[in-house]
């Protein structure tokens, strides 16, 4: 009897082991902005309006806390903020508003932090130009180091040594050889 129960339990346990991982899969991310009931209205990125929609979604940062652009958050994180913002953009584009007006509306509502790239004005220009200046300065410094500093000076003219200097040099070399000769 026990053998029969054991034989019947093996397929059931095997089935559970195969099905359990599929049932344990996450249904979405677990960050603060996740909303499993958020509407996912379909894909509207076709045509001219779709290109404008995708462009705007790529320029705006979702404020659910993920730090991604609106398009990536909507299709990767599936938060509750990005579908609503995407619908707002889509409705505005369909009603004939320009991309600049829609972007300005988001900036007016949420501040400049909603933009992924800061506008090139004021102190933000430092962020745009500093990397270029740093790369050019590093190139100049590297060039100076490789070259050996600043402009090289002219060479000192060499004259033939006199017989007295040659004799003195030979005597000094002989003394050096004697001082360094092995002791064996």
Task: Please outline the helices and strands.
Layout: H1 2-23, H2 47-59, H3 70-77, H4 82-94, H5 99-110, H6 124-147, H7 163-180
Strand content: under 5%
Range of helix content: 55-70%
C-alpha end-to-end distance: 98 Å
Find the structural class using helix and strand composition. Answer: mainly alpha
| Total E-strand runs | 0
CATH superfamily of the domain at 47-114: Cytochrome C biogenesis protein
Largest sheet: none
CATH class of the domain at 47-114: Mainly Alpha
Would you kindly provide a written description of the structure presented here, covering whatever features stand out?
With 184 residues, the chain is mainly alpha-helical. Among the domains are: 68 residues, Orthogonal Bundle (Helicase, Ruva Protein, domain 3); 30 residues. Helix content is 60%, strand content 0%. The protein has seven helices and no strands. Helix 2 packs across helix 4.
The gist of it:
This protein has 184 residues and is mainly alpha-helical.
Observed structural traits:
184 residues; 7 helices; 60% helix; Helicase, Ruva Protein, domain 3; 0% strand; mainly alpha
């Amino acid at each position: 009897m026990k053998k029969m129960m054991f034989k019947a339990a093996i397929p059931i346990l095997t089935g559970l082991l195969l099905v359990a991982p599929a049932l344990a899969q996450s249904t979405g991310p677990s960050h603060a902005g996740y909303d499993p009931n958020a509407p996912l209205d379909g894909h509207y990125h076709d045509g001219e309006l779709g290109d404008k929609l995708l462009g705007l979604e790529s320029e705006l940062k979702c404020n659910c806390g993920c730090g991604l652009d609106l398009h990536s958050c909507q299709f990767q994180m599936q938060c509750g903020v990005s579908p609503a913002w995407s619908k707002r953009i889509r409705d505005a584009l369909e009603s004939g508003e320009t991309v600049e007006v829609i972007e300005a509306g988001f900036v007016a509502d949420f501040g400049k932090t909603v933009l992924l790239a800061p506008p090139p004005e004021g102190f933000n220009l430092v962020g745009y130009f500093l990397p270029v200046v740093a790369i050019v300065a590093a190139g100049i410094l590297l060039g100076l180091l490789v070259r050996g500093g600043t402009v090289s000076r002219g060479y000192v003219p060499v004259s033939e040594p006199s017989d007295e200097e040659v004799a003195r040099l030979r005597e000094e070399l002989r003394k050096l050889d004697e001082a360094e000769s092995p002791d064996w």
